[in-house]
Design a protein that fits this description.
The protein is α+β, with helices and mostly antiparallel strands. Helices cover 29% and strands 33% of the residues. Helix 4 links the parallel strand 5 and strand 6.
Length: 190
């Protein structure tokens, strides 16, 4: 399959209460707050942002590479308040074999409210229908109870435990590998 004729800088995904869109330079402060929060970043392999300039640089670099359709990075926003809630990304996109990896982060003020479930549901629908993905994978650290709960509620299947596959703060950590297939998602749309 060829890359889609979609400009990743122009994607907008809507759900009942949320919308997902590429971040702009106006969102740099929000991204910095999310990516500098050690509690939010605890179960990721994303480097902690140390200053606002890192967030600005990340957004600018993503905007330049988005046209290649190799990495999709969207902010999650409330439709009612327009507040920034978090991010979702699709990476390791393989158009030939039609699979990719998903990652997500939510500001802790919004934990436990169902917003990540809603945003992932809309994002997965887009990935399966518009990008024609067949399989979406996710990895999460074995101690990340919130991430595990989100994935399992969306009917991701735990395929196994990857032993010491991430080096975080000089310690090797295990993760679980999850996946969902397009047919499973469409059958069980939650």
């Amino acid at each position: 399959m060829d890359k889609p004729k979609i400009n990743f800088n122009e994607i907008n995904i809507n759900s009942n209460n949320l919308f997902l869109k590429p971040l702009s330079k106006e969102n740099a402060t929000d991204l910095f707050a999310l990516y500098s929060d050690e509690e939010v970043q605890r179960f990721t392999d994303v480097a902690i942002f140390k200053n606002l300039g890192e967030a600005q640089k990340f957004i600018a670099e993503y905007s330049k590479t988005a046209e290649k359709a190799e990495f999709l990075f969207l902010g999650i926003f409330s439709r009612a308040t327009k507040d920034f809630l978090g991010t979702i990304r699709l990476y390791h996109i393989d158009y030939k074999h039609r699979f990719a990896t998903i990652g997500f982060q939510l500001a802790k003020d919004y934990w436990g409210r169902g917003q990540m479930h809603e945003s992932l549901q809309a994002f997965l629908k887009f990935a399966f229908n518009e990008l024609d993905m067949h399989r979406i994978e996710a990895q999460t650290f074995v101690e990340n109870e919130r991430g595990i709960k989100v994935l399992e509620r969306l009917k991701f299947v735990r395929e196994g435990r990857l032993r010491e596959n991430f080096l975080i703060e000089d310690k090797f950590e295990d993760s679980y590998l999850y996946s969902i297939l397009k047919t499973e998602f469409l059958e069980k749309e939650i």
